[in-house]
Design brief:
Layout (H helix, E strand, L loop, with lengths): L5 E7 L3 E6 L4 E6 L2 E3 L9 H6 L6 E6 L8 E5 L1 H4 L17 H15 L9 E3 L2 E12 L1 H5 L2 H10 L3 E5 L9 E13 H10 L16 E6 L4 E7 L2 E2 L5 E3 L4 H15 L6 H9 L6 E4 L2 E4 L1 H25 L5 E5 L1 H16 L5 E3 L3 H5 L1 H23 L1 H8 L1
Parallel strand pairs: 1-8, 8-10, 11-17, 17-18
Antiparallel strand pairs: 1-2, 2-3, 4-6, 5-6, 5-9, 7-8, 9-10, 11-12, 12-13, 12-14, 15-16
Helix pairs in contact: 6-12, 7-9, 9-10, 12-13
This protein binds adenosine-5'-triphosphate (ATP) and magnesium ion.
The site of magnesium ion has 5 residues, from loops.
Length: 395
């Protein structure tokens, strides 16, 4: 059986990881939360192990020279959310230098590699899967500007990384050795632009957009990035990042619903559903009565929308020849109506949103997918013409 490398496009967002694999035949979305743990986490019942989705019970040991804390054990994603020692990234941290980013990255890859569907793709001996990937991922512009992408990439390329599934449904006892044939680290803002102008086969779409000066304001969970695109490239010196995101506001709404109505919502995602659902938006059930929480959501989200709008205005003023600003990220979904209303009443900039949450939230992952697939296609083409070149290119 031949062992080939598989394409992986992974956006390690502060709020959640989004990943696309292979011919986009598999995707994962995992909350970016980890918690240190012991090897023998108590399991409630054997059913939990058999019936639960592995993705909801990720419990792993991670071995990699790239980690500061090598061989540590973690709960990851939904399982970690419930821990009292859950770690989420804080806004000031560097993605390229945190173990958390790497743990999330390796866990995501291992969850793809270990699947039965990949039995033909990767070699497996005694519960050890040998997986190799061609990875496309990204870092915030700020970190790329500081040159941190170089070290990040060579750490990944330089060694084999191992994920061992401990008390994880379905995969307990399996190990995955991850090695990379190639790693591409793209600046996040540039990636968003690529997604706008390139299709999955590497063709240019949106020809009218390609030579315009545009802004892309990405409102994430913990951060907002505004990229300036000129001459088909991100203008590093003009791009700006802010430690402002929607997570805090969603948390504030949840807290206020709890104190005011005595209703405990489980997750931020529940809050998102209440604000964005088509029917009965901004209403919850309180003791069986339909109750409006519009006052709470309006005040908190309008406040955040104003802050986001101020950033837009600042960046637009410094880049006066901008033709359009696109809002992307989960935050854009939540704040869309508020930002539109502010804009109508204030400056009237040419701004646009994406209707589809898949397009808005998966923007980065889609872009990495297009870029890494394009790279792979060209690489294979070169190899077909000259077999020696392939070896060189893969190195
Ligand atoms: N379908 C959705 N509709 C609206 N909001 C969503 C949706 N999914 C997630 N969100 C919320 O939007 C926020 C940002 O999500 P997003 O995935 O864009 O952040 P991220 O990329 O992980 O974070 P960052 O960009 O800061 O690294 C999260 O707080 C999330 O709860
Ligand atoms: Mg993001």
């Amino acid at each position: 059986m031949m062992s080939r490398s598989r394409i992986a496009a992974i956006d390690v967002g502060n709020d959640s990881v989004k990943a696309l694999f292979g011919k986009a035949d598999y995707e994962l979305n995992i909350p970016n939360v980890i918690a240190r743990d012991r090897a023998d986490r108590p399991v409630i019942g054997i059913e939990e192990l058999n019936e639960k989705d592995p993705v909801d019970g990720i419990h792993i040991r991670v071995h990699s020279p790239a980690l500061q804390d090598n061989n540590a054990i973690y709960r990851v994603g939904n399982l970690a959310t419930k821990s009292d020692n859950a770690m989420e990234l804080d806004p000031g941290s560097s993605k390229s230098e945190e173990d958390q980013s790497l743990v999330m990255l390796f866990a995501t890859l291992a969850l793809d590699a270990v699947r039965d569907q990949n039995a033909n793709q990767f070699k497996k001996n005694n519960n050890v899967v040998d997986a190799s990937y061609i990875l496309g991922t990204g870092l915030p512009l700020r970190e790329v500007k500081e040159g941190k992408d170089v070290g990040f990439r060579s750490q990944l390329l330089g060694s084999v990384h191992q994920v061992e599934f401990l008390v994880t449904p379905k995969y307990q006892g399996q190990k995955v050795n991850i090695k990379f044939d190639e790693v591409k680290v793209y600046p996040e803002g540039f990636a968003a632009f690529i997604n706008l102008v390139m299709d999955n086969d590497g063709n240019i779409i949106n020809r009218d957009l390609i030579d315009k000066q545009i802004l892309i304001q990405d409102i994430g969970g913990l951060s907002t990035d505004i990229a300036v695109i000129r001459n088909r490239n991100v203008d590093d010196d003009r791009a700006q990042g802010f430690n402002l995101g929607v997570s805090e506001s969603l948390e504030a709404i949840r807290e206020e619903i709890r104190t005011k109505h005595g209703v405990e919502l489980d997750t931020r995602r529940d809050v998102v559903d209440i604000i964005t659902k088509k029917n009965d938006r901004n209403h919850i059930m309180v003791k069986g009565s339909r109750t409006s929480v519009h006052d709470i959501t309006d005040r908190i989200l309008l406040d955040l929308a104003k802050k986001e709008y101020r950033h837009l205005r600042n960046v637009w003023q410094k880049n006066s020849q901008t033709e359009i600003c696109y809002f992307v990220g989960g935050g854009a979904m939540v704040l869309k109506e508020y930002i539109k209303t502010l804009n109508n009443n204030l400056d009237g900039y040419n701004i646009d949103f994406f209707e589809d949450e898949k397009e808005s939230i998966w923007m980065m992952a889609n872009a990495y997918y297009k870029l890494i697939s394009d790279f792979d296609r060209k690489n294979n083409k070169a190899a077909a013409q000259d077999p020696k070149e392939k070896k060189a290119a893969v190195k």
